[in-house]
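Page 42, continued from yesterday. The earlier attempt failed because a stray header line got pasted into the input along with the sequence. Redoing it now with the clean sequence only.
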Amino acid sequence: MFVSRIFTMIIIAVTHYTAFAQEDSSVEMSKTKLAIVSGVSASFIVAGHIQNYDAWWKGKRSAFHFADDGVKYLHADKLGHNYFTFVMSDVVGNSFHWTGIEKSLALFYGGSIALLFQLYVEAEDGTHPDLGFSVGDGIADITGAYYPLLQNEFPYLKNFTFKYSIIDAGNVSKGKHKTVIDDYESQYFWCSAKIPYLIFPSDNFLANFFNIAIGYSVKGIEGNKSNAHSELYLAFDYDFEAIPIEGEFASVLKHIFNYVHFPSPMIRISPSVVTYGLRM
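This time it went through. Structure tokens are written below.
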């Protein structure tokens, strides 16, 4: 029932904001592209539901309740919600812009779709005894959902973006999780900043390509949690959109690459200092 309500809200939003864009802008919208984007977006939402059901929602249900799971995962789950909602919002928003909808309106639409889906996930969590609706997750969903829109409205924010990387901690092979996406010990969440460019504004390729990123991960949260702790990292990062290759396909590819933190020299700065070579 809740799923059908979510899709109904999405359809209403599409109809309303599409009509608004047509009436109040000179942008010509392609109905064919809109149909493609709507269909693909719906398919990914269904796939996300299936993945969550398989990983978390099987089994008994309970009365709706709230839960504070920040301590359990040392807040890595909040960064996960922020990142994945950000990516979903950005992908859907830019896809709707591709259909001809004005950029700000398309990003607002993408953020709203991403937020509705994530709130649906939280609502489902709230009906399972081992989970619960997390207000902290909801807040992280909001920040991720509308960050692409904020970047568009306030261009200075484009100097800061969220990225993600995986280093398998071995918990999947031990049977503790089905996929690394469910294993926070294998996941690293990054905030990448164009520090060289901000210090030395220039058209120089190196100043634009190399960023500095701060990363967060957790360890020891499985089992008895006696050694549970968070870890902070500093690393070089890359802005692939600075690469001077033109073309629509190249632009899309560079934008997608910027969702990921690729291997680079890295330093762990907490809980102790450890230097690495190339590392995700």
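Notes: The first helix runs from residue 2 to 24.
Reminder to self: strip header lines before submitting.
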